[in-house]
Amino acid sequence: MPEGDTVWRAARRLHAALAGQELTGSDFRVPRYATLDLSGQTVDEIRSRGKHLLMRIGALTVHSHLGMDGSWQIYQPGERWRKPAFQARLILSTSTTTAVGFALAALDVVSRADEDTLVGHLGPDLLGPDWDADEALRRLRQEPDRPIGLALLDQRNLAGIGNVYRCELCFIARVHPSTPVGRVTDLPAMVLKSKQLLEVNKDRGRRSTIGSPARGESFWVYGRARRPCGRCGTPIVHDLQGNTDADQRDVYYCPHCQPLAS
């Protein structure tokens, strides 16, 4: 599942493959940009911003968001793709590399000066140079009655946390996901741990929040419904959390280690 660490790795790979190179072709397979041709433009840099990916090419920024199922893959020219062609949304080619964005949830092209119209609403980036723990805390505390499980997913508070990290952070802090932000005993520690988890996982091929993946388990609670809690043995609970039916997301927690205070 693409979260901030996944997008950070994708940006690093794409930057290594494309930065400084002149594009020999571009193929936008979305109606809005079907006639846009970036051939002859130089790729200056590729960076992540939370879960967003920014390709700065000439005077433009190509923005993409992976959503639940998207990915960027890098190929040699003529190499067979590992995903079906009908899922391709953007193909960027140089003399040595073909980069393909598959099943992208969002794809936009704006001038560099207008990048903020796409990502300016985001909170401090957990893996970015603008990371500011105090500002993240300030934003989280603006809505003290909001469930912490929803506040952590809100990219306007801090950028990069997805559903996996949301569930794991609540477990590590022994906080029920429905606990109001204002009743979280040590919110600064949760913010610090979020930074630590993404930092330690950004260079890993296999994400883990439990320490060494060699233990045979990657997560404390995520995806472990009805399996015993690693701390107390109580079966892990699976539920849904969201403000509306449309934004319900899976949530996992241990009812013993993470009791919801009355």
Question: Overview of this structure, please?
Answer:
The chain has 262 residues and is α+β, with helices and mostly antiparallel strands. It folds into two domains: 4-119, N-terminal domain of MutM-like DNA repair proteins, CATH 3.20.190.10; 133-253, Helicase, Ruva Protein, domain 3 (Orthogonal Bundle), CATH 1.10.8. The chain has helices at 4-18, 116-119, 133-141, 148-153, 163-172, 187-201; strands at 25-28, 43-49, 52-57, 60-65, 71-75, 88-93, 98-102, 106-111, 237-241, 249-253. The strands form three sheets. The chain has a four-stranded antiparallel sheet, covered by helices on one side. A hairpin with a 4-residue loop joins strand 6 (88-93) and strand 7. The relative contact order is 0.13.
| Spatial order of the strands forming the largest sheet | 1-6-7-5
Q: What's the number of helices?
A: 6
CATH architecture tag of the largest domain: Orthogonal Bundle
Q: What is the residue-mean pLDDT, rounded to a whole number?
A: 94
Supply the number of structural domains: 2
Helix proportion range: 10-25%
Q: Could you tell me the number of beta strands?
A: 10
Indicate the low-confidence ranges by residue numbers: none
What integer value in Å does the Rg equal?
20 Å
Strand content: 15-25%
Q: CATH topology of the largest domain, which one?
A: Helicase, Ruva Protein, domain 3
